[in-house]
Structure formats: C-alpha cells, structure tokens
Design brief:
Elements: E1 3-5, H1 9-22, H2 34-40, E2 52-60, E3 66-75, H3 79-82, E4 88-96, H4 100-115, E5 121-124, E6 137-140, H5 156-164, E7 167-178, H6 185-193, E8 199-202, H7 208-222, H8 234-244, E9 253-258, E10 261-270, H9 273-276, H10 285-299, E11 304-313, H11 322-336, E12 339-348, H12 352-360, E13 364-375
Parallel strand pairs: 4-5, 11-12
Antiparallel strand pairs: 1-2, 2-3, 3-4, 5-13, 6-13, 7-12, 7-13, 8-9, 9-10, 10-11
Length: about 400
C-alpha cells in the first residue's frame, strides 16, 4: 500500500476530501470546514510553524484509491516536547478504512518521523495547534452530531489505535444539560451571598479590547498551570476575540469580577455545526453567503443549542462559590436569549474539580473522546496524564 507525502495541491485536496467520502451516508456526520483544516498546514496562517514543523501522508490501495491519511507534527515550544525525560510529538487528522495493516502503516510513518527528530513518544489524535479543536478520538457518543471543531469518528477507529499499541493518556468528556431545567437552590443562594463581593456580567462585544484583556487575565491564572498548556499572550487573546467576532453572542460569555479584577469566566458560542451543516464544507464566497443565510435562520429559532468552550476561576477565588454564582446569572440570560440546551466540550478526566461542577449543575456525559500516547520504548512504564489537584 503506497504511502505518499502530501507535497502538491492534488494530494492536499485528497487529504481534505477523504473523511467525507469514508463517512458518506452516516446521518450524524458533520465534517469540519475544509478551510480550517487547510489553515493548520499553512505556515502563513498557523503560528506553530514559527518553531515547529508538520508533515502529511495519504495511503493508497493497489488501484490508487486513497484509503487513509495521517499527519505528524512537532511544536518545539510545547511543554511536552520540552520535557527532556520524555519529549512527545504529535499525530493527528487520522482517517482510515477498517484495516489494521493500513492503519499500522500510517502510524509507523508518524512514529518514524518523530523518532528521527528526537521524540520518545507520540500523542494522538491531536492538533498542530491549540487543544480546543481537532483533538481526541471519539470513543463514545457515535449516535450524536459532533460539535464545531470536533471530529466524528466511527467506532472501529478505537481498535485501530489500541491494537497498534496506543494507550489511553486521558479522556475528554462532552457534557449535556437542558438549560430550562432549574439549577439547585444553592446556586441562587451563592449569587445572593456574593452580591456585595463579586460582580457578574456578560461580555460587551462593542469593547473587544476589554474582552481580550479580561479573557487573557483569567486564562493565564486559571489554565496556564495545567499540563500541556502554555501562557497566552495578549495578542493571542486579541486574535481569539477577532476570530469569534462573526459568530459571537455576547450573552454567552460571562465574567466574574472582584472589584475591577476579572476572576472567573465562562466562554460559550452558538453551536456552530447547527449552522455549518447547512453551509457546506468550504467557506468560500458561496459558502459565506450560505453562512449568513443559515445564521439568520438559526438566530430566529427558539430552542437553539449553545456549546461551552472554556471555563475557569483564578486560584485565589476557587472554592468560594464564585463559579456557582456566575452560572446562576449566566443561565438566566442564556435562557432568555432563546437557547434550549448546551453541550460543554473538552472536560478532561484529569480535572476532577470541573467534573464535580458538571455534576452539581445536573449535566451528564454524552460523548467521550480519548487522547492516546504511544511510547517508542515499549519497555518503558506508561503513566497517564497527572490529575490536577
């Protein structure tokens, strides 16, 4: 089975097109926007190339039909890569027919490329970018549509990874909640208790600079201590705010303030796949016109879906009920804005505090993605991702 490096426009198109062909006829499949996948491998658009590199391959059968794809990448600024005791590279964007030999050839290509660059392990499937998109293998919840920026995978992919020798590094849960269901009375009590100490407000999209600064402050204090997460620059925060602009609903972004300092946040968006599934896979001129029409139709609906992107409380204010009070105010505003339910992405099993919060608001796990790790030294003891204390 010939393995071809993606070095020209034709193979790049084949790489992009494969998932839609493999999963044709699956009613819940929604593919990612092709422009966004292409941007991952464009050095002009992906800042990770500043101190990193990536490679892509497609696998063909004897007749020349593309039957698999994979990418490997090395971000030398990543925390895991800088760990001298176990430098870890990445593989991702894996798609393949149900054939272990074909999958092995793809995994071997990633392993050999990373080994030649001094890596001792590879994680996958992950993204050559941030964790908020294109990260993890779906292992439960196949009957549900994927949220924006998350892949849908068929059940047999799990066996392809685990038979090769990948081991579970951590799970990523997606939790679901009906927004109209009242919260426990404790949340209203927390809101009243903190009324004189904290202030809670949704974002103001007319002031993007303040939004970026507030997000940057809470993110770095609440998240940068996590394994695999680096400090965010203010320019990066500004870029995130600009990127969210066309789809931003300010009523879904909430902050808690202690005095003038932002100390907590919850960032949500309308569930964009409910719009993009009516648009097509390319956001070209026609796609943008379709997007504007589909977004308008979606905004006029009642019972819309939102999805949570990130949530956090700075350490000095954790354990004081600030998150509960913020959730109390946010839920009221979100329901009034016409949202019916929410799915909260990317809750790692290494974050028990967040899982407790999900249970406290009555959310249930409906999807599970897995991030796997493959140690090149097969005799080396395997360790799962450390728990956040």
């Amino acid at each position: 089975m010939p393995l071809l490096e993606v070095t020209d426009a034709r193979l790049a198109r084949e790489f992009i097109a494969l998932p839609a062909r493999l999963h044709a006829g699956v009613p819940q499949y929604i593919g990612p926007l092709e422009n966004e996948v292409e941007a991952v491998f464009d050095p002009q658009k992906n800042l990770k190339y500043a101190n990193g590199e990536a490679i892509r391959w497609v696998l063909t059968d004897a007749a020349g039909q593309i039957i698999g794809r994979i990418a490997a990448f090395l971000n030398r600024d990543a925390v895991d890569v800088q760990d001298a005791s176990l430098p870890v590279g990445g593989t991702g964007f894996f798609e393949c027919i149900d054939d272990q030999a074909a999958a092995n050839e793809l995994f071997d290509a990633g392993r050999q490329w990373l080994l030649a660059r001094g890596m001792a392990a590879m994680d996958g499937p992950i993204n050559f970018g941030e964790r908020d998109r294109f990260w993890g293998l779906l292992i439960d919840g196949f009957e549900r549509e994927p949220n924006y920026s998350m892949f849908w995978h068929p059940p047999y992919y799990r066996a392809l990874f685990e038979t090769y020798g990948f081991q579970l590094y951590f799970k990523q849960y997606t939790c679901f909640r009906l927004l109209e269901t009242p919260l426990h009375a404790n949340f209203a009590r927390l809101a009243a208790q903190h009324a004189d100490t904290y202030r809670f407000a949704h974002a103001d999209k007319s002031n993007p600079e303040k939004l970026a600064q507030d997000f940057h402050h809470v993110y770095n204090l609440a998240w940068a201590k996590h394994s695999g997460v680096k400090l965010m620059s203010l320019d990066q925060a500004r870029g995130i705010v600009r990127e969210m602009g066309p789809v931003l609903d300010e009523r879904l972004l909430w902050f808690g303030y202690h005095g003038d300092e932002p100390v907590s946040f919850f960032v949500g968006l309308p569930e964009l796949n409910q719009i993009f599934k009516h648009v097509g896979r390319r956001l070209n001129l026609v796609g943008k016109l379709r997007f504007l029409w589909a977004r308008r139709q979606y905004q006029r609906q009642r019972g819309r879906k939102m999805f949570g992107i990130i949530y956090g409380v700075v350490p000095e204010h954790q354990g004081k009920g600030v998150d509960g009070a913020m959730i109390h105010y946010a839920r009221q505003a979100v329901v009034a804005a016409g949202y019916h339910d929410t799915e909260m992405n990317w809750i790692g099993d290494f974050n028990p505090r967040m899982l407790v919060t999900m249970r406290s608001i009555g959310a249930t796990i409906i999807k599970t993605h897995a991030t796997y790790r493959y140690l090149f030294d097969r005799a080396r003891p395997f360790e799962r991702s450390p728990i956040i204390r």
